[in-house]
Amino acid sequence: MPEPGAPESEAGGSVARPIDPGVDIGHVHLKVADIERSLEFYCGVLGFELMQRFGTEAAFISAGGYHHHIGLNTWQSRGGSPPPPGTTGLFHLAIRYPTRASLADALRRLVAAGVPLEGASDHGVSEALYLADPDGNGVELYWDRPREDWPAPAGPGEKVGMYTRPLDLEGLLREAVDPEGGAEAGAEASR
Q1: Same domain? 33 vs 119
Q2: SS3 category, 143
């Protein structure tokens, strides 16, 4: 509930005090149909680490040893199908990579595994790959450009200037490092 005396927004409602800037999203928990299939995708293809598993019912995975960034469970969804179009729910989960080269490695992994992309965009503030996991959940893999490289806001009251343009996938792949030899892997992966 907005604080008494809070300023009015352009939409006419009260503007609440901004959230603490240190707040972030700790993890996402996905309902999946098959734990093994999901682990093969998230760990086998994307490279997350399995941190804990509860049989065929749940698994917790992470990057860098955190307790979990993604939870997977079949508690209400074992053998289920994705929700039909036109329903509410998660649009996608976004996985942020620390560098453009690490996003390039993710693209190399997807190409090697034959995982199709649904889109690839340059948003000015970030570069992103869009795909679906085996359960049809939307997944965005992206890296943020440094703040000083973000586009200027286009209009008054805006704080960032984002856009959507096609992403040069071949250029991105040229930044991938070959896990076998340390050399660029882009040439092989883009064939």
Answers
A1: no
A2: strand
Strand order in the sheet with 93-97: 93-97, 138-144, 126-132, 119-122, 165-166
Residues written for the chain:
191
Per-residue tokens: 173? 């792949």
User: Domain containing 166: what range?
Assistant: 90-191
Q: Quick one: 106 and 190 in the same domain?
A: yes
Q: What does the alpha-carbon distance between residue 73 and residue 29 come to, in Å, rounded to a whole number?
A: 8
Q: What is the mean pLDDT of residues 80-102?
A: 93
Average pLDDT, whole number, for the chain?
89
- Identify whether the C-beta of residue 45 lies closer than 8 Å to the C-beta of residue 113: yes
Query: What is the domain count for the chain?
Result: 2
For the whole model, what pTM was predicted? 0.83
* Token pair in block for residue 81: 């199908």
Mind listing the pLDDT tens digit for each residue in 53-78? 999 999 999 999 999 999 999 999 99
Tell which residue, 134, 133, 39, 33, has the closest CA to residue 74. Answer: 33
